[in-house]
């Protein structure tokens, strides 16, 4: 009889362990997430080169307007204010449409948006040659062309952030070189083509160059999300001591499932256990480019002693799919959401999170920056909600990038006000320096066109040098940015006293270098002010402020030139605007940053809003 009881007890224990193992295996199969891991190399470098070329043709064409202006003004016989508006409108519009383009890129992907933008910009440039007057050209090339320029520029920058994490600063440095190379080459190229063939043929050739963006867009293939099992931990433990075990009914112990919402559910009756078993399903490190589902390694519960008391199975709600170089990657239930580039909070970060700030005051996760880099994507998408997910992919980003509540952050408010003034003078050397040298100083037109080359060269050097300079002891991104922005303002004021080609070239070199950190270091300043959680929102609002004043600045300079017949007053006032902007940025250091409590409350509001949207 005793032998039968022992055999029966052993049979029940083996049956119970088999059921538990089967339950664990089913959980492994069910608990999958999708994650797009930046390869940090490989095909990513091809994407970075394509993005650089997108910047080259886009920014190069816009920056070349300083040379085009002379030829266009001779044809249309209009004032400086009107002709400069033709060049300033696309520069402002392509920033103003940033939130909309970002939403479209998140909804449809960066590749189709870049291709459509390249075709649209080329068509607008070609149609502008048929303009009967400057007003029509302002609408065709300025407004519609500016929209399509934005569709080329912004998604190309985002794609680099999607493909790179640790090496992102290097990749974005390569992309930044595209803007410099465009400024270096397109100014003299525009003068050569328009002087030899006329402005209409020259514009058609530039339209043909713009069509090369189709090829660059085709290269921007989205990352394929990987299907990986969720890392979870199963704990088999016994709170029963030898003393209490004697007094315990051995037929009653139960395995408790601790669910993510804290509720306990009865699983299976168990035999007595006296040891603790820990079972973990993990994803081994492997090739991030592989499409294979990583194998799951588990500890076989049957290898554990059979005489164990109660088995507590805990599924960790904080553990996530783990792939790559040992870092935790936060996945999502819907593979389409995993491949949406703008669902990353660090989509607009020009460098790796680790390099931006070692311990940001408002960072959500200081120990694992990448885990903080994924936005609060809406909850797991069910089959009936997949159509809504596609719509929300656009609405979420558009709403985030037009959320003016971020201006409650006083430091961000100072940055936006400062940029209102800085952009009034930012385009002066780009749009007016060549005309200033030709019309006021009587410099040869061909020689004057190379002033943009000098400006572009030193602007590129300044963008690369800003980061290393900011890493010098006792310096930081804000101090370097403010000092050089102030210097750029002083130089622009002094440019009013330039008297020959040499002094104009000296101004182009020094100002090109000094104004560069206003684009390259400001992202780090914004990151320190608002943190990663609202970084995308900050950039969206900054796009809007910059876009409006970019449209106003050059025409205002043209108005001063029309009134005074010279550009010296325009440079003096434009430089004063840049100096005022530097003071607003200097005040950031004296404003109390948002407290941790305020940041947490703001994050709770965002999370509640996301839950309501779901």
Quick rundown:
Residues 285-338 are annotated as: Disordered. By secondary structure, the chain is mainly alpha-helical.
Proportion of residues in β-strands: 5-15%
Instruction: Write down the Rg.
Output: 30 Å
Overall helicity: 55-70%
Query: What is the CATH topology assignment of the largest domain?
Result: Growth Hormone, Chain: A
Shape: elongated
**End-to-end C-alpha gap:** 61 Å
CATH C-level class of the largest domain is Mainly Alpha
Oligomer: single chain
Judging by the overall fold, what is the CATH architecture of the largest domain?
Up-down Bundle
Please specify the SSE layout and strand pairing.
Blueprint: H1 2-30, E1 32-35, H2 43-63, H3 65-76, H4 80-96, H5 98-108, H6 110-128, H7 134-163, H8 168-197, H9 199-210, H10 213-219, E2 226-229, E3 232-236, H11 242-246, E4 254-258, E5 264-269, E6 277-281, E7 312-314, H12 335-338, H13 353-356, H14 386-401, H15 410-426, H16 428-440, H17 445-470, H18 477-494, H19 501-515, H20 517-520, H21 522-530, H22 535-564, H23 568-586, H24 596-613
Parallel strand pairs: 4-7
Antiparallel strand pairs: 1-2, 3-6, 4-5
Helix pairs in contact: 2-7, 2-8, 2-10, 3-4, 3-8, 3-16, 4-7, 4-22, 5-6, 5-7, 5-14, 6-7, 6-9, 6-10, 7-8, 8-9, 8-17, 15-22, 15-23, 16-17, 17-18, 17-19, 18-19, 18-23, 22-23
Membrane topology: Multi-pass membrane protein
Subcellular location: Membrane
GO cellular component, one term: membrane
């Amino acid at each position: 009889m005793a032998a039968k009881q022992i055999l029966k007890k052993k049979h029940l224990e083996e049956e119970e362990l088999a059921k538990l193992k089967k339950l664990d295996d089913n959980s492994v199969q069910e608990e999958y997430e999708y994650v797009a891991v930046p390869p940090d190399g490989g095909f990513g470098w091809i994407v970075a080169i394509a993005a650089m070329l997108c910047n080259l043709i886009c920014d190069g064409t816009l920056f070349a307007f300083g040379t085009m202006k002379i030829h266009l003004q001779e044809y249309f016989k209009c004032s400086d204010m009107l002709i400069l508006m033709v060049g300033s409108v696309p520069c402002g519009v392509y920033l103003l449409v940033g939130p909309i383009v970002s939403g479209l890129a998140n909804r449809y992907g960066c590749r189709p948006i870049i291709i459509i933008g390249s075709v649209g910009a080329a068509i607008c440039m070609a149609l502008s040659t048929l303009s009967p007057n400057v007003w029509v050209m302002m609408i065709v090339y300025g407004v519609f062309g500016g929209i399509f320029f934005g569709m080329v520029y912004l998604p190309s920058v985002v794609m680099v952030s999607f493909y790179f994490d640790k090496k992102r600063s290097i990749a974005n440095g390569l992309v930044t070189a595209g803007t410099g190379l465009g400024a270096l080459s397109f100014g003299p190229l525009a003068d050569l083509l328009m002087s030899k063939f006329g402005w209409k043929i020259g514009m058609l050739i530039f339209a043909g160059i713009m069509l090369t963006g189709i090829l660059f867009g085709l290269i921007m293939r989205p990352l394929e999300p990987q299907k990986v099992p969720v890392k979870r931990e199963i704990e088999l433990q016994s709170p029963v001591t030898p003393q209490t075990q004697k007094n315990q009914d051995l037929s009653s112990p139960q395995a408790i499932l601790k669910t993510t919402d804290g509720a306990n559910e009865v699983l299976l009756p168990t035999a007595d256990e006296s040891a603790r078993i820990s079972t973990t399903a993990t994803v081994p490190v492997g090739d991030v480019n592989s499409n294979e589902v990583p194998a799951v390694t588990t500890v076989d519960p049957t290898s554990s002693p059979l005489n164990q008391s109660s088995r507590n199975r805990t599924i960790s709600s904080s553990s996530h799919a783990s792939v790559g170089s040992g870092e935790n990657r936060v996945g999502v239930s819907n593979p389409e959401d995993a491949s949406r580039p703008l669902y990353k909070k660090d989509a607009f970060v020009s460098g790796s999170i680790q390099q931006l700030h070692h311990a940001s005051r408002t960072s959500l996760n200081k120990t694992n920056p990448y885990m903080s880099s994924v936005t609060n994507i809406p909850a797991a998408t069910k089959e009936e909600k997949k159509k809504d997910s596609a719509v929300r992919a656009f609405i979420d980003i558009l709403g985030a990038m037009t959320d003016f509540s971020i201006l409650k952050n006083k430091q961000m408010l100072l940055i936006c006000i400062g940029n209102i003034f800085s952009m009034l003078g930012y385009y002066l050397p780009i749009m007016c320096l060549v005309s200033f040298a030709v019309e006021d100083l009587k410099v040869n037109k061909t020689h004057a066109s190379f002033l943009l080359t000098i400006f572009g060269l030193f602007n590129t050097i300044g963008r690369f040098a800003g980061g290393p300079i900011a890493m010098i002891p006792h310096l930081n991104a804000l101090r370097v940015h403010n000092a050089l922005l102030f210097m750029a303002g002083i130089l622009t004021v002094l440019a009013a006293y330039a008297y020959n080609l040499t002094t104009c070239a000296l101004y182009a070199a020094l100002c090109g270098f000094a104004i560069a950190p206003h684009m390259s270091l400001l992202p780090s300043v914004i990151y320190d002010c608002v943190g990663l959680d609202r970084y995308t929102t900050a950039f969206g609002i900054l796009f809007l402020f910059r876009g409006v004043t970019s449209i106003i600045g050059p025409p205002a300079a043209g108005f001063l030139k029309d009134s005074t017949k010279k550009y010296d007053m325009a440079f003096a006032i434009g430089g004063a605007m840049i100096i005022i902007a530097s003071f607003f940025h200097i005040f950031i250091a004296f404003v109390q940053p948002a407290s941790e409590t305020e940041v947490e409350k703001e994050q709770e509001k965002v999370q509640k809003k996301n839950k309501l949207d779901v």
